[in-house]
């Protein structure tokens, strides 16, 4: 003992000497050796292998595996107190009861392996589970079938050596991908997202058949997900998740599904914070969540629901991004693999486990057949009589062995002494009641089972496929996909932010900002907007909204800048330098470098803007140019129509107006748009409108044109074609609205139990109206926006000589146009099989009485190769010498 103490003291002294601080002047060096040298690596290895990262073999972390093993040991078909299970698990787990209870609650909330009873918390609201002494649990039938198989389980000593626990559980299912896993270790972490139960089984079957498959996450909180960049769950991938938000009425939004990783409490908090910061504007929030999520968001009057939905995605937890990281433990080492590889390994491991179980089953069946055969021989041939004269145990064994030899040639293995001992243990009662026929039937049934097991082993892949199919049919009910997969549209925060502040300008001094409340009010804006400013010296600049920003003296125009805006057109007339010519130009500003001054003139010093206008829809006004009297000028006054000036880049020099001095320029006539009607497409993938040519072309829209929307619920409405509009999943008609074109509908009237038909025009623009009856059993059969629709009515099997299988009906001839609230006419009294929409009858739409507009310019080709100069008596023909400058997106 004394020698050991001295040795320990010596080691400690050496260690402290190694760890001492060696000072050399102002520098200090600390050497870390001894136990400290290995402690961090040991700790990191322990956390990685024993706590945070799941094993690929069974998909469990150690604490989860020990909980499942304890549940199996306690399993008697009845519920056990969770506190009791936790206490039992502590025999195997070296940590406290709190960590075990938390891990068990997480398993139970996934509703796969544990059959729960009591308050286990709510993943939707974030409510915690009750204390472990109040809640109960038992293994689910699924867990009993796929997780446990003691005969093929490898065992090891528990941490204190008193018990045996499984190294890995023989899980015959891709459990890791079904439940997901998340853990932070030392130096690495893992985040495997949960996947759909049925899709995992289908993928395993496809893999066994040699087919390709793809897996995408599926979250228990439902929601909408964009898996475009999922990257198979590898490092660097990303899944965007959104709440499912719909419009209940014009002033109410409802959230029915929430993103994974949030709960209703945290979601509501994020919405309230965004409201406090002025990003969105709401009136109040109601949380009616119970078994299903229901969060009502009440909006103030005048606030756009569509814009608010986008703002919720942009500024709150209604949209989040999840970065998966597929890290697992294999052979006691961390390994980074994708979900496809995880499923392949799990499926192949399942096949191997099934093979082991079949081999054990075959061995047991053959053993049963062997002893049943021996028993029959022993009793049928009365070999038990041979031992009557024997006086020693050895003699008994020898006598039985000698008596069996003539009859055992057909057995599949040699007879052992153990077999003979078992024969001696057969009771007299069993011998006396032995039935030869029943014994033979039993042997035949064993042979059938042996043949069946051998067949399964020979066709192992087919057996595994049937195994997975059986899992799907037995446990796949109500496990359909919850998260809807959809491609998200990118939301620009500047376009959906509520304008929560006011912008002011001091034109003379050259300041703009939100704090200049004594100066001229410009517009409402948000604190993330960009502002475009033009000054009298022909300079332009775009800057971020701030309290006070200096731009330059003599500000002409200030506005909120819209990025990539191809429709806002600026009309400009400027004087080039002190004595130079006067030029006219039209241009757009689509992209720039923030806080960089741009010169819109030819660049000569002392240039000055004589006329400026900003036109949100490409308007082209007519102005009058007045010259100063000088010399022999014959014409001192004439008009310029900006419609004659091509739209070019902002760096173009422009066309010469005159080389003489201009006295003033006056507005003579306001202009109309010179842009073509805007083409709008609908992209069904993201369910949004766009002007980029994605999806199906809806039509060309001018300023007052509206969209017609009809839903399967029998609701019709017209809206402005705003690109931020949202569209419900049950939308069945989306087109450019023609106020003169009637809408034809056939619907089932729930109260009268009859089909009705009606034709109507929309009388109230921008109003949502129901055009079928309000009875809960009423439903829309079909709707048409054709001028002269035709429908085919199919009947069940015709009865009678003159009965027809179907008839065609001209809806225009059948019913006249009535009001939208009219019930309509009864359509068919007979029993109907199908009602189908046919090709419409030909119709020539009457020409519009609206006069033709002036010649328009295509907004997508606003820069011409060569400018046409303004032609007047005092000007000369010239071409623009300036070129389009290079721009920078910001």
Q: What do you see in this structure?
A:
By secondary structure, the chain is α+β, with helices and mostly antiparallel strands. The chain has 6 domains: 30 residues; 168 residues, Topoisomerase II, domain 5, CATH 3.90.199.10; 83 residues, 2-Layer Sandwich (Gyrase A, domain 2); 125 residues, Topoisomerase, domain 3 (Orthogonal Bundle); 139 residues, no CATH class; 161 residues, no CATH class. Helix content is 26%, strand content 27%. It contains 18 helices and 50 strands. The strands form 15 sheets. Strands 27, 28, 30, 33 and 34 form a 5-stranded mixed β-sheet that branches. Strands 42, 43, 45, 48 and 49 form a 5-stranded mixed β-sheet that branches. Strands 16-11-10-19 form a 4-stranded mixed β-sheet. A hairpin with a 2-residue loop joins strand 17 and strand 18. The protein starts with a helix and ends in a 52-residue tail after the last strand.
